Predict the structure.
Amino acid sequence: MSIGKDIRSFREKGGLSLRKLAKEMKISSQYLSKIEVGKQAPSKTVLVRILRALKIPFRKFQDIYMDSQLEMKIRKLGFEDQETINLCKDLLTMSANEREVILETYRKIQTPYNV
């Protein structure tokens, strides 16, 4: 998902039309439309204004955006089912120590079967 698609999703969930949001932000609806369809990237200033107008904390938006980017990369690797995608995201966002604990546990579980 692109930033524009995320913005559109938040706007629609908030019950705002594209025109109403653009008017509230004092930008053209054409400009906002280009952002939403990915034809134009918003500047940092415009992005902050959009998030404020939608009442979305920047940190929340950043987390959602990063999560959607990670999912897109996992799908490009050929994983399609949501359970596998979620497992990959969990593994990728763990610390090195957490991954090592999981690998060690996995090795212990596999050892009896490899005898």
